[in-house]
């Protein structure tokens, strides 16, 4: 289903009717939209979105309300049509931050659809998980302009679309995940409530979609046993537990609930998965285990459910890839009833691990912080967090043959 934010916490606990977390309205009043209509194109809502007189209303599915970064995910989409030719834009995502954009999927590929210009009214209540936007101007990106021109084949000069204002945006949304981090400072290395997770140094590389399966190099040895502890970002666990919460299946287990600062009830933050298989390869410097490579595969699943806010995520069959700066955690992720998809959930920052050690054939990677990767605005947790945001940590122990 992406720089780490300042260490503050405020979780949204406002009750919402199921699926009703607000909406984003696009007023199609810009010269680019007018040019499309005059050329014979139709601009309409698709799926769960609704159309009105020169407007499209996209229901807000979920998101993050943050002082630094705000992210919203939407249901439905936008349909552009000219005769029998159509361009369907789905998975509409809004991001306000260093780069303010409205992104979409077109034919399975993600594109930057609109740039959000400076100005307009923006009220972000991080503590309440509420966003109110009005009068934000949207300008078509060069990428989107070229795509529309190519797919609809209109008798319309590209200069009438490229860089032109398309619409004004307004949003009213509540019940969002707060943009703050957990109450304890992860850099303190084990402060009460932090789980001892260090902060990652950044987002790490953008992954391929789907990520390739790691291939064992010549000389790799088999892994005979392994264990994994996934300590999930605590603010996310608290947020999910204002809904139905978490559950495990397929042999995965959860630690007993504990009462941590900032929580109103004991909750489970750590999850474990049964070992399936794996391989290990000693690096160029046998004395430095951080130079090694490995791929360890597990089974089981953890489900995160908050149906009142449209969140139903099942993260299954984790793959831990140890590969220096390219280390990562890959999961099979299912969102609601959609087919499961294998994807990089977080990049793993070995340089910030609490400890990396090897003794004989036993290897330990302790509290390796995970970060939302770059370039994954449509992936699961990137729909709630910006690239580089910490999302807990992993401890992996394994023994080679």
Q: What do these coordinates show?
A:
- The chain has 401 residues and is mainly β.
- It has helices at 31-38, 142-152, 234-240; strands at 22-27, 42-46, 50-52, 55-65, 70-74, 77-82, 85-96, 101-106, 109-116, 121-125, 130-140, 165-173, 177-178, 221-231, 245-249, 253-254, 270-272, 275-281, 293-298, 301-306, 311-323, 328-335, 341-348, 355-359, 362-371, 390-400.
- The protein folds into two domains: 22-174; 187-400, no CATH class.
- The protein has three helices and 26 strands.
- The two termini are 35 Å apart.
- Residues 1-20 and 181-194 have low confidence and may be disordered.
Give the end-to-end Cα distance, rounded to a whole number of Å: 35 Å
- Oligomeric nature of the chains: single chain
Q: What is the ordering of alpha helices and beta strands?
A: EHEEEEEEEEEEHEEEHEEEEEEEEEEEE
What would the principal axes of the Cα set say about the shape? globular
Poorly predicted segments:
1-20, 181-194
Structural class: mainly beta
Question: Sheet with the most strands?
Answer: 8 strands, antiparallel, barrel
